[in-house]
């Protein structure tokens, strides 16, 4: 703040000291702009790593939970707020959700590439599972089991 001049204004009712470099709304109760210095604040500004980790299968999860990055971003892209996401996943706290969304917004391209690869991997795994055990056969076995018929149909 050195090199800047304070301007004093006086009216019969009140007097003000104005430091032109600060916005007009930054005044204390007496109408005086408070001096801001490193000694008047204890706010620590530091970078925090996002609360993300990759599990043994390469899936990125949030915090120390099984909630995936993909599920958080999917809800966010559908219009859910951070608060709504935190309510949906009670294993996460609001800080973790905001930190995850902040990471996503700051690293959109890399995150989108990861999400695209994850969706492709998931789709391939689903196709493989359907090929090995088609849904129609599973449905038929469940129906037979429900009806008490354990033996496969003669045929």
Mean pLDDT: 81
What is the CA-CA span between the terminal residues?
A: 92 Å
Largest beta-sheet characterization: 2 strands, antiparallel
As a whole number of angstroms, the C-alpha radius of gyration is 30 Å
Defining traits:
155 residues; mainly alpha; 2 domains; two-stranded antiparallel sheet; two-stranded antiparallel ribbon; 5 helices; elongated
Describe the fold and architecture.
43% of the residues lie in helices and 9% in strands. A two-stranded antiparallel sheet has the order 1-2. The protein has a two-stranded antiparallel ribbon with strand order 3-4. It folds into two domains: 1-34, no CATH class; 52-132, Winged helix-like DNA-binding domain superfamily/Winged helix DNA-binding domain (Arc Repressor Mutant, subunit A, Orthogonal Bundle), CATH 1.10.10.10. It has helices spanning 69-77, 82-88, 94-106, 108-132, 135-146; strands spanning 7-10, 15-18, 52-54, 60-62. It has five helices and four strands. A hairpin with a 5-residue loop joins β3 and β4. The model has no long low-confidence stretch (mean pLDDT 81). The chain starts with 6 loop residues before the first strand and ends in a 9-residue tail after the last helix. With 155 residues, the chain is mainly alpha-helical.
């Amino acid at each position: 703040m050195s090199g800047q001049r304070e301007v004093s204004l006086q009216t019969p009712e009140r007097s003000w000291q104005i430091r032109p470099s600060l916005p007009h709304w930054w005044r204390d109760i007496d109408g005086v702009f408070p001096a801001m210095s490193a000694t008047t604040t204890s706010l620590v500004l530091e970078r925090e790593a996002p609360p993300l980790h990759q599990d043994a299968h390469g899936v990125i999860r949030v915090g120390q939970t099984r909630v995936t990055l993909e599920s958080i971003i999917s809800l966010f892209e559908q219009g859910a707020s951070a608060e709504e996401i935190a309510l949906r996943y009670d294993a996460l706290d609001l800080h973790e959700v905001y930190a995850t969304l902040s990471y996503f917004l700051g690293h959109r391209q890399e995150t989108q590439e990861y999400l695209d690869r994850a969706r492709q991997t998931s789709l391939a795994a689903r196709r493989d599972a359907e090929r090995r055990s088609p849904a129609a056969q599973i449905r038929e076995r469940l129906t037979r089991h429900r009806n008490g018929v354990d033996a496969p149909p003669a045929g």
